[in-house]
Amino acid sequence: MNIGIISFRALNKRFSYEEKRLKEEAIKKGHKVHLMRYQRCMMTFEGHGTLGIRYGKRPFPEVDLIIPRASVLTNAPLRTSVVEHLQLMGLPMLNEYNAILRAKNKLQTLQILSHYEVPVVKTAVVNNSKYLKQATRYIGTFPIIMKTTYGSYGNGVAIVESQRSVKSTYGILSDSVGTKNIILLQEYIAESEGKDIRLFVVNGEVIATMQRSAEDGDFRSNVGQGGSGMGYTPTEEEIHMAVKATKALGLEVSGVDIIQTKNGPAIMEVNANPGFKELEEISGVNVAGKIIEYSEKFAQEYVAGSIV
Ligand SMILES: Nc1ncnc2c1ncn2[C@@H]1O[C@H](COP(=O)(O)OP(=O)(O)O)[C@@H](O)[C@H]1O
Ligand SMILES: [Mg+2]
After folding, report:
1. Nearest alpha carbon, ligand 1 atom 1
2. How far does residue 198's CA lie from ligand 2's centre (Å)?
3. 291 in a structural domain
4. pTM score > 0.85 for this model?
5. Residue 78 CB coordination number (10 Å)
6. Could you tell me if residue 263 is left (phi over 0), alpha (psi between -120 and 50 degrees) or otherwise beta?
7. How does pLDDT run across 228-276, given as a tens digit for each residue?
8. Per the domain annotation, does 68 fall within a domain?
């Protein structure tokens, strides 16, 4: 089949490891691949309900499925509207537009996971600095974690040691990553000791796992912040949680982060566009190959539905 991979990286940046690996695996399996840049996609409207799209100066290539690599921080709904557009044109999408948006928004993720009774970390969300004291009182003890609703790679996440830093941190976070005043205050899971686990879910199954540890002197386990990974075998409970969280958000492919709390595992976040460089290295699993394998099945079984 013909697979389109849409990169959201800056035009002056090369394609990512993941984009190149997906292309490589797809070609190995006999598919034709169009690795594209979202900046070159021009959405068109003809009137009379005709949505169209062009790619640069050319018609958009004929594809049977799209894998969007939507690494966007700010303005996610607008920046990923190409995904919605292609989906409205009837193309199968791994992952689909609304599921990507749910996962990108940490507040919406918490709402959905809690609704489905998936354990999360105790959190208070404020949209006004007036209520910071109430929120910290609700969380209980310092340190606390403060984070923006959108953010990735550990950017937009702060640890705050005392009440005195809460308001100024709120100010800094509110101004960053375009999330305005909505900030999450969260219980700090000290017992995790800077570690969490990443479970990679494809087609309702955990296909690879690793544990990540924060660099000395940090609390964030993100590889982008100097964190490092090692092998890990998940428990049945962790597998069940990861699969349930992925389904709840409507994702087909996800990277679920689980943190160990004194009350058991809890979901830290669910990534709709998970990286897998370290994961492939550490687990030895061909993650890209598994995604491509699933996309064959997904494209065959896909029935275009209404998404708006
Ligand atoms: N409540 C918390 N308690 C302990 N560590 C946390 C907490 N929240 C975040 N962290 C650490 O910070 C990292 C980044 O937080 P996360 O919410 O996943 O943001 P991002 O989307 O930027 O990765 C996590 O992987 C974890 O290591
Ligand atoms: Mg994270």
Report:
1. 188
2. 9
3. no
4. yes
5. 9
6. alpha
7. 999 999 999 999 999 999 999 999 999 999 999 999 999 999 999 999 9
8. yes
